[in-house]
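Lab notebook, bench 4. Still working through the backlog of constructs that have no structural model yet. Next entry is a single chain of 242 residues. Request: give me the structure tokens for it.
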Amino acid sequence: MAAEISISLGPSPARRDALTRRIRLLVAATITYNVIEAIVAITAGTIASSTALIGFGLGSVIEVSSAAAVAWQFSAADHAVREAREQRTLRIIAVSFFALAAYVAFDAVRALTATGEAERSMPGIVIAALSLAVMPFPSAAQRRAGRELGSAFAVADSKQTLLCTYLSAVLLAGLVLNATLGWSWADPIAALVIAAIAVREGRDAWQGKGCCAPATHTPTPARGGSAEADACGCKPGCTCCS
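Model written out:
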């Protein structure tokens, strides 16, 4: 007869509470930074007629909405209530990303075919460089906490924060090329890249990719067979460790 040994893989209640508090603090910091980032980027983008900067600022607005939704989800004391809120908020975030992609793509194509050109923007370069340096750290911290907690939404939100890093790099390249070489077409091209990334992230959020709840136990057959959870305790088909 094959013997099975059940091993608890989920965090303890005390650890779960600690992870929840950590996510709340990271979310509060993310909201504060992204509000400032959105105001600076949209204002500078409007002044410079920069589609990429405006799109970046709108992406920051979506990140604020996502972080606020995480705060709302984790405001519930009961874990079951938090899980019930997760799918609904993931879908809202996904739709927001699709809307952002449509707007930015349309405006980028209009900028490429029109006679107007984006002007140089030093405030845009500064905010893009600052975001590129700052945003990877809260994203990584929240992603680790979300994976350990088994929260797909916390992980998805951390990936949106990481998306800010990618967008910052693309935006910075476009703004610098425009400022130094006068390549005004680099701005709408950067905006199209931002739109493509937004579509991908929206699709992943809609499908609920990112992380799954840990399995409650791992059957260990005496000989042969396969485990029901991976090395970090996720159910089959999940990507907590990726």
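Notes after review: The chain has a mean pLDDT of 75. The radius of gyration is 21 Å. Flag for follow-up if needed.
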